Structures are given as structure tokens and as C-alpha cells.
């Protein structure tokens, strides 16, 4: 029984790690890309992830999704 309980806890904790954000609307992505392009994003100190594939916007450095 104890083993089952431990496995259940690990499965539950694993499910928390896979929480995903909803996809950023295209108009908001376009605004972020325009900001990047108009402010010299290629020269930013940290532009990690910027201009990545659609659906990765929440991983772009400095972008917070909720």
C-alpha cells in the first residue's frame, strides 16, 4: 500500500510539471515580433528563444504568460 501511495504522489507531481500555457494569439505574437525587430532584438543582451516557433512565446526571455 505504501508503494502505491508513493507512486501516486510521483505521478501527481509529474502531472504538475506538464502544465502548459494556452497558445499566444497571433496578433500578440505579431506585436512581440514587431517589438523585437524595431528595437534591434538581434543585439539584445539576452534574446533567448525570441522568434522561435509558434507556441514557444512563453519561453521567450522576458515574456510572461498567464
Overview of this protein structure:
- Helix content is 44%, strand content 0%.
- The chain is mostly helical and 66 residues long.
Entry summary:
Helix content is 44%, strand content 0%.
The low-confidence parts are: none
Structural class: mainly alpha
Terminal CA distance reads: 38 Å
Number of E-state strands: 0
How many helical elements? 2
Largest sheet: none
Query: What would the principal axes of the Cα set say about the shape?
Result: elongated
Q: Quick check: average pLDDT?
A: 85
Strand percentage: under 5%
Order of helices and strands: HH
The proportion of residues forming helix, as a percent range, comes to: 40-55%
Rounded to an integer in angstroms, the radius of gyration calculated over CA atoms is 18 Å
Write the layout of secondary structure elements.
Blueprint: H1 2-17, H2 26-38
Which short descriptors sum up this protein?
2 helices, 44% helix, mainly alpha, 66 residues, single chain
Amino acid at each position: 500500500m505504501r508503494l502505491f501511495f508513493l507512486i501516486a504522489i510521483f505521478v501527481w507531481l509529474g502531472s504538475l510539471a506538464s502544465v502548459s500555457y494556452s497558445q499566444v494569439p497571433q496578433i500578440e505574437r505579431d506585436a512581440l515580433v514587431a517589438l523585437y525587430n524595431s528595437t534591434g532584438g538581434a543585439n539584445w543582451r539576452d534574446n533567448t528563444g525570441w522568434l522561435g516557433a509558434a507556441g514557444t512565446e512563453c519561453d521567450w526571455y522576458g515574456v510572461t504568460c498567464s
